[in-house]
Amino acid sequence: MTRWLLHVDLDQFQAAVEFRRHPELRGQPVIVGGNGNPEEPRKVVSCASYPARAHGVRAGMPLRAALRVCPDGVFLPQDLATYAEASEEIMTLLRTFPGRVEVLGFDEAFLAIDTGAVDTDEPEQLAGEIRSAIEELGLRCAVGIGDNKTRAKLATGFAKAVGKSGDAAAEQDAGTGIFRLTADNWTELMAHRPTTALWGVGARIAKRMSALGIATVADLAAADRELLAKEFGPNTGPYLWVLGHGAGDTEIAEPREPVGHSRSETFAADLTERSEFDAAVIRLATQVAEETFAGGRTAGRIGVTVRTSTFFTRTKQRKLAHPTADVDEVVQTALQVLHGFELDRPIRLLGVRVEFGPPSE
DNA sequence: TCTGGGGTCCTAGGACCC
DNA sequence: TCTGGGGTCCTAGGACCC
Fold first, then answer.
1. What is the pTM of this model?
2. For residue range A207-253, what is the model confidence (pLDDT) as tens digits?
3. CB A341, CB A316: distance < 8 Å
4. What is the maximum alpha-carbon separation in chain A?
């Protein structure tokens, strides 16, 4: 038996969900973010359709910047409830296929399947069936096939390669759609790439690695594990070395129990009064607590995040003496944690996080 | 172009205890 | 007397991802 990991990744997911209910927008440079008003400050692009990407619009870009590079863009408000519903629809569909499903986000999942021989195209056949089934939902996806999660996830990037180039054909053909990455072609396809090509290596780690003379995936694979452990810690260091070899987990982690829940808000204009800080934290804490308890969880720890007008961001948290399901206790604790900050600067963002305690008896 | 929101996991250091 | 070593709990901070 051979274990295959399939990574299913929806194309331009939020925009695609909008296209299902607004078919007349298909092919248009649709930009989802904020409340749909591109002039709104401090709001960013959540998803851009391929034509919008061709103009240079990217997720995370301020809406006002997106408007500048794509003045003909169709700006839509982010409707998370609808995307969550569509996501549930997709995950339910994926669970009808053989294998186990691990949800990675709204628009991504791993599927683990055990098949017969190694050299057959069984996983490609299954991937094709998944793509067809998703197409029947009016959506599109790419499927990465790998001998572990790391490779399956990266394979999806190759499957989407055409879509990422941003050319005009991208809307019609978002890549070949299916790609297989295994130990057999890992070195050929990945060795020369920068370490940031790896899933789990971002700009910070890449920079620290480059200071050690590690620039590419091949460098990382050849690096000294002791050195990596010394620089990145006893767990992360060896893990990075393993990543460089393309090795990774083959087990499906489902169901995943969430460990916490948070709400935060970047204010359209900085808050300057303590009464405003308190009011915002009371509101956020109440919401987080109600959502936590509605989900049948208790609160074990309360965290508050403050971001000042200079973008200086700090978090403080406090463990409760006993887990609670009392909204007021969460709110009062959040206020106490807030008051542990200096609060002598205008505030741009406030956030409240609950870490779940053990289930209530 | 002044930089969203919601998550997860890891590391380091201090307190405290034996 | 200036001096141990391990284990655990707790908070702060960093990094990454979608």
1. 0.92
2. 999 999 999 999 999 999 989 998 998 889 999 999 999 999 999 98
3. yes
4. 67
Give the Cα separation of A139 and A71 in Å (integer).
Answer: 26
CA-based nearest residue to A152, from A54, A7, A304: A7
User: Among all strands, which nt has the closest C1' to A60 (CA)?
Assistant: B4
User: Which pLDDT belongs to residue A116?
Assistant: 75
Q: Of A200, A168, A136, nearest to A54 (Cα)? A: A168
* Single-letter residue type at A360: S
Q: Is the CB of A360 under 7 A from strand C?
A: no
Q: What is the pLDDT of residues A172-202, one digit of tens each?
A: 444 579 999 999 999 999 999 999 999 999 9
Picking from A348, A346, A345, the residue whose alpha carbon sits closest to that of residue A268 is A348
Alpha carbons A318 and A314: distance in angstroms, whole number: 14
Peptide bond into A255 cis (omega under 30): yes
In whole angstroms, what is the distance from residue A176 CA to residue A156 CA? 10
Average pLDDT over residues A153-168: 72
Residue A290 CB neighbours (<10 A)? 12
Q: What is the pLDDT of residues A293-339, one digit of tens each?
A: 999 999 999 999 999 999 999 999 999 999 999 999 999 999 999 99
The two tokens of residue A279 are 């009011």
Q: Give the CA A322 to C1' B3 distance in Å.
A: 38
Q: What is the CA A136 to C1' C17 distance in angstroms?
A: 29
Helix (H) or strand (E) holding A89: helix A80-94
Catalytic residue of the set A18, A108, A171, A355 = A108
Report pLDDT for A169: 41
Residue A263 CA and nucleotide B6 C1' are separated, in Å, by 8
3-class DSSP string for A261-327:
EEEEEEEEEEECCHHHHHHHHHHHHHHHHHHHHHCCCEEEEEEEEEEECCCCEEEEEEEEEEEECCH
